[in-house]
Amino acid sequence: MFFVANFEDIKKGKITDVYFVKTMEILKKKGIDKWVKAEFIVKRLPKGIPWAVFTGLEELGNIIEGLNIKVRAMKEGTIIKPYQPVLEIEGMYTEFGILETTILGLICQSSGVATKAARCKKAAGKRGVMSFGARRIHPAIAPMVERSAFIGGCDGVSVVYDAEVLGEEPAGTMPHALILLFGDTVEATKAFDEIIDKKVRRVSLIDTFNDEKIEAVRVAEALKDRLYAIRLDTPSTRRGDFLKIIEEVRWELDLRGFNHVKIFVSGGVDEYKILELNKFVDAYGVGTTITNARVIDFAMDIIEIDGKPVAKRGKMSGSKRVLRCENCFADMIAPLNKEIDLKCDCGGQFKDILIPWYDNGTFLYKNPTPQEMRKYVLEQLEHFEL
Ligand SMILES: [Zn+2]
């Protein structure tokens, strides 16, 4: 068996830090319970990252379903900045306090993956970004991780089951294993072309035995118009000036009339590498940097007790609105119960992005599809810089 928790145990609050169990025991014995509001914010994002993509809400919905609480939340896929509450839970403390560890775990990891995917997609622009990193994580959480990668902006995911969960076709080319077993790149590519469904694009991996440009030309001459792309997964020890190698491959293909053959790159790719290689690359396979992305360090803090604002040191108390200008994407945080001017300096209107989501057993809107969430992320990305 795997060392993973099942859904029922998680929902029961068993995946909790022990100090919450002790807290509940003390509160119960002393007969103390209070109406609290708690918010979830990130104070500091990973180094060099100015914004994050908030995800994990749909899974969180399954955990809180049935609880007597009210929740305001940002929509899954919202691009957020530090100090903006992404979630606010209101209810008796003992109703949800035990779930703090679980709630944070659900949103921190997922948002980290979605954020990295969004950064890679932002760097790649119109070029494709595929999630290839499932092999670097525990298979039991691969569907969650690749879902987050997809919502964050990846054009496809490589794991068959994960793609099925998303309602997408899995994305992939051919492994070195195929070429090694055939003993020749062209023979392996021809076999792929012969056996695999015609609907699948022919992408040949050209770095296994010989120089990339020689192999690229060989497979292009063998498959001609049927060859959609070539992929370079060149080991870092052989890369030298990788951009120059790719430029050379492009040159040799074009010179022989294979302008239609696209160039894919994988292996050690992140958003910075993407910016370097964009000139000659049409699509990227991104692995570890997305699937094992640094988490977004959300924390839960109590900000109101029995209707009175209260918070620990270093935290602003009271319930808040998070507002974003529809026009210029400027943000504003304001007290929940104060009248404020919703007109932005740019002439646009501020709109609430932390909105009611769950009210004592009822979800106030239906979960969007992963495709809708991804579209929402991509639309926002146009207004944010890397
Ligand atoms: Zn504005």
Structure description:
With 386 residues, the protein is α/β, with parallel strands linked by helices. Among the domains are: 172-266, TIM Barrel (Alpha-Beta Barrel); 320-353, no CATH class. It is 36% helix and 21% strand. The chain is built from 14 helices and 18 strands. It has helices at 7-11, 18-30, 57-64, 93-96, 100-124, 142-152, 160-166, 176-182, 185-195, 212-223, 242-255, 271-277, 288-291, 370-381; strands at 35-42, 52-54, 70-73, 78-80, 87-92, 128-131, 156-157, 202-205, 227-232, 262-266, 283-286, 298-305, 308-309, 320-325, 331-335, 350-352, 355-359, 362-363. The strands form four sheets. It has a seven-stranded antiparallel β-sheet with strand order 13-12-1-5-3-17-18. Strand 12 and strand 13 form a beta hairpin. Helix 5 runs parallel beside helix 12 (271-277), helix 6 (142-152) packs across helix 14 and helix 10 runs parallel beside helix 11 (242-255). The radius of gyration is 24 Å and the shape is elongated. It starts with 6 loop residues before the first helix and ends in a 5-residue tail after the last helix. The mean pLDDT is 97. Bound molecules: zinc ion. Residues 325, 327-328, 330, 344, 346, 348 line the site of zinc ion (ZN).
